[in-house]
Amino acid sequence: MATSVTLNDVFQGRVESLTVRRLLLAGVEAFWRDGFHASSTRDIARRAKLSPAAVYVHFKAKEDLLYDIILYVAQHLRDRLREAADKGGNPTELLSRLVHAYVALPARMYKASLVANREFSSLTASQRKQIVKIRDELEEIVGNCLMAGKASGEFSFDDLSLTRMAVVSLCRSTLLWYSPRGRLAPEEIGDHYVHLVLGMVTSRADRTQRGQGGFARHSLVSPPSRAMESGGIGTSLRSPP
Question: Under CATH, what is the fold of the domain 66-237?
Answer without folding.
Answer: Tetracycline Repressor; domain 2 (1.10.357)
